[in-house]
Amino acid sequence: MSKICQITGKKAMVGNNVSKSKRRTKRTFDVNLFYKKFYYVEQDCWISLRVSAAGLRYINKVGLDAALKQAAQKGYLTDFKVLA
Questions:
Q1: DSSP state, 67?
Q2: Fewer CB within a 10 Å sphere, N or C end of the chain?
Q3: What's the rounded Cα separation, in Å, for the pair 83 and 57?
Q4: What is the pTM of this model?
Q5: Residues 6 or more apart in contact with residue 67 via CB below 8 angstroms
């Protein structure tokens, strides 16, 4: 599974390691991802999401239902597990 947040759509970026002598080599900046379970009140079930730290803050700000609707609208929410 690729390293993509299911709420914000954040994914790994590519950049350079820069040494003291200014020599540049490629590297990746990975996303701070968590597997997190949330209780979805509207459907009375638990869901499991792969969400970044920024995604957790966004869920706390607007709520789980609004965050899921926006993620589905933008196409970030491909598949998530519903835990009964």
A1: H
A2: C
A3: 22
A4: 0.83
A5: 7, 55, 58, 59
